[in-house]
Amino acid sequence: MNQITFTKPDDWHLHLRDEKQMASVVMHTAKYYKRAIVMPNLSNPVFTLELAQQYRERILKALRDDTAFEPLMTIYLTGDTSSQQIVEAKDSGIIHAVKLYPAGATTNSARGVSNLDQCDAVFRTMEKIGVPLSIHGEVTDSEIDIFDREKVFIEKHLSVLVKRYPDLKIILEHITTKDAVQFVESCSNNVGATITAHHILLNRNNILVGGIQPHHFCLPVVKTEADRQAVLNAATSGNPKFFLGTDSAPHARQEKESATGKAGIYSSPVSLPIYIEMFERENKLDQLEGFASFFGADFYSLPRNQETVTFKKEESTVPGRYDYANDYVVPLKANETVQWKLAE
User: Fold this and answer.
1) What are the helix (H) ranges across 10-82?
2) How far apart are CA 117 and CA 100, in angstroms?
3) Average pLDDT over residues 217-237
4) If you compute the radius of gyration of the chain from its CA atoms, what whole number of angstroms results?
5) What share of the chain is helix, strand, coil (3-state, %, to 5)?
6) What does the pLDDT average to over 115-144?
7) pTM exceeds 0.70 for this model
8) Where are the beta strands (DSSP E) in 216-271?
9) 26-59 burial, b for 16+ CB within 10 Å, e for fewer?
10) Which residues contact 106 (CB under 8 A, 6 or more apart)?
11) 297 and 220 in contact (C-beta within 8 Å)?
């Protein structure tokens, strides 16, 4: 097959940052995706509806005038979030999920949740009025091996949430393990998961072999080859519980290559070519449209897109860097070749 046309996809997990940095990268997503769930963990997190409205306006202002891209906003859950705030967020029509970060789990998560019991009233309100809960599924206990943090979170916390709030829609974001795949498969249709391009492409050898590769460091960290294959199998399975979410997370080069390098892989410019290539390798291109374009919209109870995109099989070299405010960002597969290209 030398060409593929399918419904324009959406990105159900995206980091855009803010201000000049956001303006530098937002068009890389808008080129490929019609909509995106925008994460709220800015340096000044998006705790309220008002902050989400302001952030949305900044994103729209940064787009080209001819770009029909829709940011789908979220708010950042804390122990102080109230049920009234959830109701107001739902009524606004612009908030599509509430994001749960275990405190200290990832970038700008220090003000996340330390005790899930504090959020009982909020979870019950979300369950009642139909607001999805988006979860970064890792424990942060220092004694837990970093490669086990997703598995332990599922065992200790997510399994409890699913039982306690059976009608709450839950998205386990950026799954990385066979354990996560099996857990999501075992749950009701109220539980889904996003899958990134980098977690179906990379395993932990890609971080550690031949020297530390800082631009492959993300949280949750990529896992074993067996885990990578399990996640890839889930993505290509046609199971509507699994859908596309890039978790594209830009950081300036100097922040990635420092002694305390930031976690996050910038994949927006290459994510869709990577997904297509990985589905092709598995002889599952017939399952791509569901994963990329249908299942996420269905889970979020939003209409499927009407436009289509066409990709042609043509090699191209990924740029080694993109401008990023006053610095630059290094993308996934920098200076490497991808096999599929958008037919402009």
Assistant:
1) 19-30, 49-62
2) 13
3) 98
4) 19
5) 40, 20, 40
6) 96
7) yes
8) 242-244
9) bebbbebbbbbbbbbbbeebbbbbebbeebbeeb
10) 41, 136, 138, 219, 263
11) no
CA distances from 125 to 83, 129, 133, 323, 326 (A): 6, 6, 11, 42, 43
Cα–chain center distance at 195: 7
Tell me, what's the pLDDT at 114?
Answer: 83
| Amino acid at position 290, single letter | G
φ, ψ for residue 230 (rounded to 5)? -65, -40
Distance CA 62, CA 98 (A): 24
Query: Which of 134, 234, 237 is CA-nearest to residue 176?
Result: 234
The arithmetic mean of pLDDT across residues 67-85, rounded, is 96
Phi/psi at 60 (nearest 5 deg)?
-60, -40
The 10s digit of each residue's pLDDT in 234-280 is 999 999 999 999 999 999 999 999 988 999 999 999 999 999 999 99
8 Å CB contact between 107 and 249: yes
Helix (H) or strand (E) holding 109: none
Structure confidence at residue 105 as a pLDDT band (50, 70, 90): confident
Show Cβ contacts of residue 262 under 8 Å, excluding neighbours closer than 6 positions.
Answer: 107, 251, 255, 256
Active site residues: 247
Residue 174 falls in which region: left (phi positive, over 0), alpha (psi -120 to 50) or beta? left
Distances (CA, A) of 200 to 144, 203, 211, 221: 24, 8, 21, 12
CA distance 238 to 256: 35
